[in-house]
Amino acid sequence: MSARVVDALGTWCPVPIELVARAAGRAAPGEVIELLADDPLIAVDLPAWCHSSGNDLLELRRDGEGWLGRVAVRRS
């Protein structure tokens, strides 16, 4: 199964998390969402959102000038 990609490049807090939340709401449990973001606050916001929403943060790393986050949806 390929990951659903959420491109939040060029957006700022809270937009990247809103986009991930919207994608998670449409995803099936177990589906992986990849987030592309260049807002530096994503390093704090994505782990916090995963914790509060019950989804699993699989990866969060720098990717060039931005960030790549991977989230496994636990509930839709």
Commentary on this structure:
By secondary structure, the chain is α+β, with helices and mostly antiparallel strands. It has one domain: Translation Initiation Factor IF3. It is built from two helices and four strands. The two termini are about 15 Å apart.
Q: Which strand order do you get reading across the main beta sheet?
A: 1-2-4-3
CATH class: Alpha Beta
Global shape: globular
Q: Into which percentage range does the β-strand content fall? A: 25-35%
**Cα distance, first to last residue?**
17 Å
Provide the gyration radius in Å: 11 Å
Point out poorly predicted stretches.
Answer: none
Q: Helices and strands: which structural class?
A: alpha+beta
Helix count, per DSSP? 2
Count of strand segments: 4
CATH architecture: 2-Layer Sandwich
| CATH fold topology | Translation Initiation Factor IF3
Q: Count up the domains.
A: 1
Helix percent reads: 25-40%
Characteristics:
2 helices, single chain, 76 residues, Translation Initiation Factor IF3, 33% strand, alpha+beta
Q: What topology does this entry show?
A:
Layout: E1 4-7, H1 15-26, E2 32-37, H2 42-53, E3 56-63, E4 66-72
Summarize the model shown.
The protein is globular and about 30 Å long. Strands 1-2-4-3 form a four-stranded mixed β-sheet, covered by helices on one side. The model has no long low-confidence stretch (mean pLDDT 95).
